[in-house]
C-alpha cells in the first residue's frame, strides 16, 4: 500500500475514534517535571524511571517538536523525540500513566547527485543543491587527502546520500553513503562503514596525516568494548538502554590522556560513572572520562591541560563490570558520537580486514553498477530520488 494511502487510513482511524493530534514546541525553560505538572501527569512517572531512561530525557532540547493525542478531550498519548531514532511515549490508561521508548517512524529519502564540474568544486555543488553542506562534508569524507584544488572543468562528482523525514520535513542532516570524485580521470571512491568512517574500494581509510583535534584517550587500549548508541536493545532486560559514549577496554592502571586541550571543569565522583573528569574545549565541546581508578597528580578543577596530557588511570569505579574508560563527548550540552571526532595521531595507512572488509566489498558490489549507470549519463547535473518508509508500523518487543 502506498505511504500516502496509509497516512490517510491512519487519519481516518484517529477521526473515527475521536482522537485529535496536535504538535507543539518544547519551550526554552521547560523542565520535564514542569511539563508533567503542566499537563496534570503525576511526577512519580519520572521518579519511577530507570536511571538511564532519565539520562535520555536530558536529551530533550528547546525547540524540539512533540505531539499530544487527545481522546474525547483527554490526553491519550504524548510522543516526545529524544534522539533521531527514539521517542519517549507517555500513555494514559485506566491504571494511570506509563511510559516506554519506541522507535520513531520516518521516511528515508535516497538521493543521487551527479555533477560535471564547470566552475569549481564547492561552487558547482552549491549551485546544484543550494547549500554549502555537501562541499564541507566531502572534505571531511576524504579528510583533505585528495587534491580538490586540482579539479578542472569536466571532472566528475557523484553522491549517493540518504536523509530522514518526518511529516514531510527533514529532521536529520543528509548522510553521504557512497561518493566518487574523479580528478583528471582518476577515481577516488568513498564508502561509509559502520564505524562512521570512510574507506576506498580496497579498504584503505581516508584520513589526515597530521595531529587531529581529538585523539584516543587511552593510548594502550585493548579494544573498544562498547560503542555510542541512543537505542541499544538489551537482550536480557528487554529494554532500550542508551550508551552515550565509547568504552575503551584496557588494563587497570593504564594511562588516560586528555583527548584535546582544554580546562578541567569537573573532578570527582559522579554517580554510576564513579571517579570522573570533565574537560571543556573550544567551540562548545566537552569531554567526559569515567570509571577512573585515580587522578593524575596536579590535575584539579580549573587546571588547563594540553592534548595528550595524562589526567588519570583506567579503573572500574562506579557501576562498572571491568576495567575500562567510558569516554563521552558533548557538543553544546548534547551527547554526540565520539567516533566522528576521535582520530589516531599516527600517519600510517589504516586498512580494514576480515569481516569488516567483506562488508565493505558487499557495499562496493552494491554501488558499482549505480556509479557506472550514473557516469554513463551525459547531462552535467543529475538528480535522482526514491523513498521508503522505515519502522513506520514495526512492532517492538514488549518491554518489562
Automatic annotation (TrEMBL):
Residues 242-338 form the M23ase beta-sheet core domain. Residues 24-102 form the Csd3 N-terminal domain. Pfam families: Csd3_N, Peptidase_M23. Its cofactor is Zn(2+). Keywords: Hydrolase, Metal-binding, Metalloprotease, Protease, Zinc. GO terms for biological process: proteolysis. One of its GO terms (molecular function) is metal ion binding. This is Membrane proteins related to metalloendopeptidases. It comes from uncultured Sulfurovum sp.
Amino acid at each position: 500500500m502506498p505511504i500516502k494511502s496509509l497516512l490517510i487510513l491512519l487519519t481516518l482511524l484517529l477521526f473515527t475514534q475521536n482522537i485529535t493530534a496536535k504538535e507543539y514546541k518544547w519551550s526554552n525553560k521547560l523542565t520535564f517535571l514542569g511539563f508533567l505538572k503542566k499537563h496534570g501527569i503525576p511526577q512519580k512517572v519520572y521518579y519511577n524511571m530507570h536511571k538511564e531512561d532519565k539520562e535520555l530525557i536530558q536529551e530533550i532540547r528547546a525547540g524540539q517538536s512533540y505531539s499530544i493525542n487527545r481522546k474525547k478531550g483527554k490526553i491519550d498519548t504524548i510522543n516526545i523525540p529524544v534522539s533521531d531514532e527514539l521517542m519517549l511515549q507517555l500513555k494514559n490508561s485506566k491504571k494511570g500513566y506509563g511510559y516506554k521508548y519506541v522507535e520513531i517512524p520516518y521516511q528515508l529519502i535516497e538521493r543521487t547527485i551527479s555533477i560535471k564540474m564547470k566552475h569549481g568544486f564547492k561552487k558547482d555543488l552549491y549551485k546544484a543543491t543550494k547549500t554549502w553542506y555537501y562541499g564541507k562534508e566531502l572534505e571531511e569524507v576524504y579528510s583533505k587527502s585528495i587534491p580538490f584544488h586540482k579539479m578542472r572543468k569536466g571532472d566528475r562528482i557523484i553522491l549517493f546520500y540518504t536523509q530522514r523525514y518526518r511529516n514531510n520535513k527533514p529532521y536529520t542532516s543528509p548522510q553521504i553513503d557512497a561518493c566518487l570524485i574523479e580528478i583528471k580521470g582518476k577515481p577516488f571512491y568513498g564508502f561509509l562503514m559502520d564505524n562512521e568512517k570512510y574507506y576506498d574500494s580496497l579498504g584503505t581509510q581516508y584520513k589526515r596525516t597530521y595531529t587531529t583535534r581529538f585523539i584516543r584517550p587511552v593510548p594502550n587500549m585493548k579494544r573498544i568494548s562498547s560503542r555510542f548508541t541512543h537505542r541499544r536493545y538489551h537482550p536480557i532486560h528487554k529494554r532500550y538502554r542508551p550508551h552515550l559514549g565509547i568504552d575503551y577496554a584496557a588494563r587497570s592502571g593504564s594511562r588516560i590522556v586528555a583527548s584535546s586541550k582544554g580546562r578541567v571543569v569537573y573532578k570527582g565522583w559522579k554517580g554510576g560513572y564513579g571517579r570522573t573528569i570533565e574537560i571543556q574545549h573550544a567551540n562548545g565541546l566537552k569531554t567526559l572520562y569515567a570509571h577512573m581508578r585515580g587522578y593524575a597528580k596536579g590535575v584539579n578543577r580549573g587546571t588547563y591541560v594540553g592534548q595528550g596530557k595524562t589526567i588519570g588511570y583506567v579503573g572500574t569505579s562506579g557501576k562498572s563490570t571491568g576495567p575500562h574508560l567510558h569516554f563521552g563527548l558533548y557538543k553544546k550540552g548534547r551527547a554526540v558520537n565520539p567516533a566522528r571526532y576521535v582520530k589516531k595521531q599516527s600517519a600510517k595507512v589504516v586498512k580494514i580486514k576480515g569481516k569488516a572488509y567483506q562488508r565493505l566489498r558487499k557495499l562496493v558490489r552494491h554501488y558499482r553498477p549505480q556509479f557506472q549507470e550514473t557516469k554513463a549519463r551525459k547531462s552535467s547535473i543529475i538528480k535522482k530520488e526514491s523513498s521508503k518508509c522505515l519502522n513506520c508500523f514495526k512492532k517492538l518487543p514488549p518491554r518489562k
